[in-house]
Amino acid sequence: MVAESIFVYLAVFLGIVFIQGSRTIKMIGQNVRQVLAGLPDGVQLVAAVKTRQLAEIMEAIEAGVGIIGENYVQDAEKVYQAIGDRVKWHLLGHLQKNKVKRAVRIFNMVETVDSVDIAREIDKRCVQIGKIMPVLVEVNSGREKQKSGVLPEDVEPLVKEVSSLPSIRVEGLMTMGPPSLDPEELRPYFRLTREIFEKIARLNLHNVNMKYLSMGMTSSYQIAIEEGANIVRLGDRIFGEKDYQAALSKEQK
User: CA-CA distance, 169 to 159, in Å (whole number)?
Assistant: First the structure.
């Protein structure tokens, strides 16, 4: 009797989990289609997939996502095995030098270049495989000590130095801005980044093609677009709220 009760309980539980999972997957497709329908012409969607399951990522791709954004090289490698070059891959997280060799084999763009050292390492590894890597320079527009990125006044000198590297092509800037409950408070940081972007574009530097301004996430992407963003990085808006505790545990490892 006890065994039967346990069996029934497990069957009901697994059934609920299956139904909830099916609903979540269906919701992802609906969210992607809604976002894409609302984006202005020329604005690209990057699906930020940190901590997401393969089934969720696949559903987003089926619904029209063409660029996957990963924070960790090791996570990208796992998902890449299943998806491959069906989509483009953007690195959204801070890149460590010891991961560059693996990163350049997967990613089509690195959005987080913030030093000459990391740029040189990317260049060196790309030379070895005959690849030219498009990169964005990450701007620490909020001057936050705990965040990576280049201070606003240092962006132009960095771009000029990186432009001499033959296997890297600077194609724009990326910023996050400081955390804020009110997305409107991020507008000045997006605007500052756009102004830096426009200034560098006017310089007509060799090997620099300022095409992309990557700004805005789930809560702020509409304001970012108003301030000139043509790449937006969305996670929760597509997949629903993530397991933040799992994400925190991964970052602490």
Answer: 10
